[in-house]
Amino acid sequence: MSVKGKEEAVPGEGFDDGSALMDVGGDAESSGSHGRLWNYVVTAQKPTAVTHAVVGNFTHPSHLNLIICKTTRIEIHKLTAEGLMPMHDVNIYGRVACFQLFRPKGAQQDLLFLTTERYKFCILSYDAISGEIVTWANGSIQDRIGRSADIGQIGIVDPECRLFGLHIYDGLFKVIPLSEDGHLSMDAFNIRLNELQVIDIQFLHGCQKPTIAVLHQDSRDARHVRTYEISLSDKEFAEGPWFQYNVEGGASILIPVPEPMCGVLIVGEQSITYHGGAPGTVKSIQVKSTVIKAYGMVDTDGTRWLLGDFVGNLLLLVLQKDANHQLTDLKLEPLGKTSIPSSISYLDNGVVFVGSAFGDSQLIRLHAEPQEDDETFVEVLETVTNLGPIVDFTVVDLDGQGQGQVVTCSGAFNDGSLRLIRNGIGINEQASLDVPGVKGVWSMCANATPGAYHQFLCLTFIGITHFLALEDGEIGITSVPGFRTDTQTLYCGDACLNQMVQVTKDKVLLIDSKTRELVAQYAPPAGQSILVASGNLVQLLLVVGGRTVVCLEIGDKSLTFINNKEFDSEISCVDITSCSDAFRSEVCAIGFWDVSVGLFSIADWRLLATEELGGEAHPCSVLMTTIQSHAYLMCAVGDGHLFNFSLDTSAYALSDRKKLSVGSQPISLHKFVSKGEPCVFAACDRPTVVYSRNDKLLYSNVNLKMVHQIAPFHTESFPECLCVISENLLSIGSLDEIQKLHIRSIPLGEMPRRIAYESESRSFCVLTERITVGSFGDEMETAFIRLFDDRSFEALDSLPLKDFETGCSLISCNLEDVDTTLFVVGTAFALPNEPEPTRGRILVLRVVERKFVVVCETEVKGAVYSLNAFNGKVLAGVNSKIQLFIFEKDGEEVSGSLKIECGHLGHILALFVCSRGDFIVVGDLMKSMSLLRYRRLDGTIVEVARDYNPNWMTAIETLDDEAYIGAENSFNLFTLRRNTEDLNEEDRGRLITVGEYHLGEFVNKLHHGSLVMQLAESDSPKIPTMLYGSVSGTIGVVASLPQKQFLFYSKVQNRMREVIKGVGGFSHAEWRAFTNERRTSPMKNFIDGDLIECFLDLDADKMAEVVKGLDVTAEELCKSIETLAQALH
Fold first, then answer.
1. What's the predicted TM-score (pTM) here?
2. Whose CA is closest to 308, among 267, 261, 263, 347?
3. Three-class SS of residue 700?
4. Most buried residue, 246, 559, 820, 982, by most Cβ within 10 Å?
5. What is the phi/psi pair of residue 449, to 5°?
6. What digits encode the pLDDT tens for the residues 239-292?
7. Quick one: residue 891, left, alpha or beta (phi over 0 = left, psi -120 to 50 = alpha)?
């Protein structure tokens, strides 16, 4: 085993620093055989399935942290009085296998120990001063020989922090010794373990020497528990203090009980047993037959434990003890239902985090008394969306606007659901008016009290102003005394002391909110006009005559001139928003026509900071705002670009300049609040919301085509809404939850397996499976064909399948001589005594008046694993055969039967099938992919070529006529192409591997489509994309780039690898290398888009380091990456 020091990284030895590029001719933008060989893989939705979770003091001795692992990502949260506050979200170059917090003797903070499935490990600590995660140590735990354990890795930490213990190979127990300060004290070593079928291993508490308990199964399927002491000096096991033969046959978990009780809990399916390590200390309790999936300790002395089972039941196990800390009794109490847990973490004051890989994770509160409504002790405080496992999905455009939406079959067992996923933020329109020509909109409460409802909307047009009010649930024009309506308004808003203010080109009016009387006014010097205005509750900033700025103070029935300043340049926009909790602002932001923006002290007009924006477009909107305790200056320019700067409110300095291409037309910036969090709305031809997560600014487009102006509008009838002005329409609506992807959940209470969409009937067909558990723990499966409305997702109809029959495949298609779209379902009869199904059915269904009508059904000799619409026919993968069915119609009605036209043998199991023209691509269980061709002349299917690598396929799809992509069970993607140029017939029969990439996700589906709105009028070239869905809930994009663009981003990827080191010192080159049980090879003809997009989060110095030698500036690279990201996800 190799071990690296605290500051060292694991080098990518044996790997090329860059992506190996295949030397192929042709233009990637052409439609030839080499058109889609250069692929860019990027994540649209990060993993959501929780695999591990731990609680401890990681970021600070006084912080209580919840650290969540989602396969390849780690999220660090801090528990506060308001709830969980996210602190960090980091990517790990590996699939996390073991995940443990530990605290060395004398330390005040915990350290994090993790291993990956590629047999790497690291110890992470947190530097509270720099706010960064530090690699304490790392290395490899891989041995040259050894059979990987079937149950996966087990990683445990000695309670006294003397060593780590790992079971990763059958018959071996690896020991990593630790010094007292938590550093690695010596090389790791293996100890021979006689037990070959290990179920679980745990360290015991209160032992003088490190002692483990091993739950194992013998050759007769009996299960036992043995204990061993570990001698670090002899590097051997010694016989442990006790053993227990013939524990329950369903025992699967060991729970070590901490001091002072010590001992271990042996958790089975029908009993829970405590073993204290001495005669007379064994006690058991019978439980209703179940399978416990996760546990969590409530009390530090181990007297109360939370247990979660495979159907989501939450149980409380209580260990009752006497004064000598000896166990007297075990009590088990049901608490209620949760998601099916993968982890249970008790936080504080009855609050528990339930992490789930099969359903949504939950933050719950446990009550001492049952809740009145459903007699449960569990209250769900917050639900964290989990898309995993994504078993199937389809891409649809429900609104017909070019906006792709993904509908997934997500979850498992009772946590199964459909998820509707779309890019950007939707607005739920609640009221609208046809109002053309609006130039500005403001909302007013007529009361400066925080949280007060808005009473008026001020709309301004060229030469006129109107006021709207909400009366009896309807919006209409109203008269507001004191305000001018015969001219255009430049600014309107609430002011202090129950006053309102209106700014027009020739006057400033102050109106009493109660009496509606004009109480003060201000006029600019004779012959000059007010051109631009901005205000807060106590100040107004006016631009007079184009170059002069005037500051007014708003008092009790008074407008007081404070000072003014004439500038050399013409002024285009101003802002006087306060970035602190105070009403008054000490500074103002001014945008100039000379394409610059400046920050000025209002007291003496001293220049505090300035930035030259570059380009020709002048600033059109400027805004100072504070989001998540960070102050920013944002400046929008006329060509659709948005600049943002970090604003130091003590020194009033600008830093971290970022430039983003939001749209192509001038942008108007507006502040609003969503769910208590300040946000910024950038109104333009591509409206965007700017918000923050984990102290990082994020941008999410709004699903509207054009927005000119917006104003917050919060009323009793329309709470937390926005007033949105588009071309000729005023609409009032509420924003969806602000996030990159909007996800809608449709709980089913059963597991969805396949989905298809039919636009004519506007319905989804879903194959589902319901599992019910009998009183003796026996499981019964029932399968259904369900029909759902595509808008409300109301269940319209249902067909139950036969006993032992399950749905395997589903498509919607048009058959020859049938003028309507049909659903075709493939099934299998999974009989208990058959290793592989020998019977199945193909059902053809029609939707009539929103109900299923069975057109025909055909029995086949095997499971119908896959279906494909093939030129008006049905192509099916039935066990090891590919069969082509033709529909023979009976009479004029839509009825008839399916007849076999031809077929093809030679597969192990034909799990996946897709087609393009007359060519058929088959994904096999073990034999990778093969290419078949349907010959129309003689009605036969023949093999054209195949991949001879033994890949176990999980998904396939065609890239173009001669290129194909597949995913296999070692979490890799690879691309193949036909070898049509070779003169040798044998070589032409081979599919050539042209691309290889380790994705790190188990992909269940590849599907052509995009989440980004495709604008028909857009001049930018379309990038071919497909989506993938994985078991961990990831949704990703595979985009085929032109060769020139691919080569450029390959260079960027190489530079990013050199500058950015992975968390834990893990190598990016090793992580993305194609790896399975047989071989490892460098990534080829793929680019890691997630690594490329990390460039956008770097500071200026790191950006400058990355672009060295790239013949591009940091700002140009930012724009290039942002443009590509907007086009893909």
1. 0.81
2. 267
3. strand
4. 559
5. -65, 130
6. 999 999 999 999 999 999 999 999 999 999 999 999 988 888 899 999 998 999
7. left
